[in-house]
Amino acid sequence: SPVSRVVYNGKRNSSPRSPSNSSEIFTPAHEENVRFIYEAWQCVERDLRNQMSGSERGLVEEYVEKIPNPSLKAFKPVDLSDLKRRNTQDAKKS
């Protein structure tokens, strides 16, 4: 079956939003990447809500590959929240 993705061509903006209650140390480059992804996704969700409510049209579209990559046939999505929770628990055991 075809693979679908939501595609958004948003602009990159920089507003400081660092994790305040984390014991992990992040590099500035890591924080910038996380901030960019977070802000871009917030724009996608906002535009999708506006599009579905009828106030805007055509901002978000679904991308469907015509020929799926056969090497990704066995790919299973990863639950990042669960992965982080398991890694945190493993670190506490050590």
Automatic annotation (TrEMBL):
Segments of this protein annotated with the region Disordered: 1-26
Localization terms from the record: Cytoplasm, Stress granule; Nucleus
Keyword Nucleus set for record: yes
Protein's GO biological process: gene expression; negative regulation of gene expression, epigenetic; regulation of epithelial to mesenchymal transition
One Gene Ontology cellular component annotation held by this UniProt entry: nucleus
Biased composition (Low complexity): 12-23
Superkingdom per UniProt: Eukaryota
Predominant place of localization: cytoplasm
InterPro entries for this protein: MCRIP
Keywords recorded for this protein, A-Z: Cytoplasm, Nucleus
Family affiliation: Belongs to the MCRIP family.
Designated name of the protein: MAPK regulated corepressor interacting protein 1
Lineage, opening ranks: Eukaryota, Metazoa, Chordata, Craniata, Vertebrata
